[in-house]
Amino acid sequence: MATFPTTLPAAAQALTKRAGRLGLSCLLAVGVLLLAGCGSSSLNRAPVEDRGTGMSRSVAGAVDTAGVKQLPGFENAGKPGYYTVKPGDTMIRIGLENGQNWRDIVRWNSLENPNLIEVGQVLRVVPPTAENPLVVTRPVSSGTATASSGTAAPAPAPAASAAARPASAPASSPAPVAAGEDEIAWIWPAQGSLIAGFDDAKNKGLDISGKAGDAIVASADGRVVYAGAGLRGYGNLIILKHNNTYLTAYAHNQTLLVKEDQTVKKGQKIAEMGNSDADRVKLHFEIRRQGKPVDPAKYLPAK
After folding, report:
1. Is 194-298 a CATH 2.70.70.10 domain?
2. If you write DSSP's letter for every residue of the chain in order, what string do you get?
3. Which region ranges are annotated with the description Disordered (predicted)?
4. pTM score, whole prediction
């Protein structure tokens, strides 16, 4: 009987003893199979398929990261003259809070549908021609504002200047006029009594009482930049732009008597008092300086 090397596994040697009458070729075949079985464990440690799958996951992850959607205007976030859309925003509210005609903002940003804006989207809120939105420019003269969303865009509102001095401001709150900023001789927009004063946290203007149908008049010369009921909490609303610094808002009206882009004069009847989106008949009146609400009582003449 032929002998085998001692390097064969013990199981192979035992098998050869028990198969004494088998031929040499059969024993060699058994040995080859046993040797193949001993080496198989090392080949299964890192199959090619696993390595390939691992690489595919890594590449896919990189693609997913690189493919994250960036919202329009993201590169301008935080820059002067730009506004980042917040939850609940509408174009009307964005225009009011930035002292601009919302239609101009739509045009400056080439928005196809102003009703489709996304939280985090960054919008230009100064004219595209303004190289520096912080520069004080010559405002539209009171009573002669003629720019509309279809014509030349208005000059940018200055971002940091003192409030305009009213015609009869209280002695305790003088408001000097900044360079390039017109004085405005404000008047009361309604004849009723004051029922709620300005509170920066709770009430952005004054609430004035009256009867349904009482006249609401323009507090100063200006142009209608909004007339409608598209801003929640304001009911039937009119917004006037007086110059590049000031807007006024007249809310909760029963009837609106003016249209967008219409020029109005101080004292002109623009609406009738009502209780739309309010718990009682009243006028909610705001003065906004570069979109920020200020206390109208510091601008209106004493009654």
Report:
1. yes
2. -----TTS-HHHHHHHHHTTTS-HHHHHHHHHHHHHHHHHHHHTSS-HHHHHHHHHHHHHHHHHHHTPPPPTTGGGTT-TTEEE--TT--HHHHHHHTTS-HHHHHHHTT-S-TT---TT-EEE-S-TT-S-TTS--PPPPTT-----TTSPPPPPPPSS-PPPPPTT--TTS--PPPTT--------S-SS-EEE--BTTTBSSEEEE--TT-EEE-SSSEEEEEEES-STTS-EEEEEE-SSSEEEEEEEEEEE---TT-EE-TT-EEEEEB-TTSSSSEEEEEEEETTEEE-GGGTSPP-
3. 137-176
4. 0.61
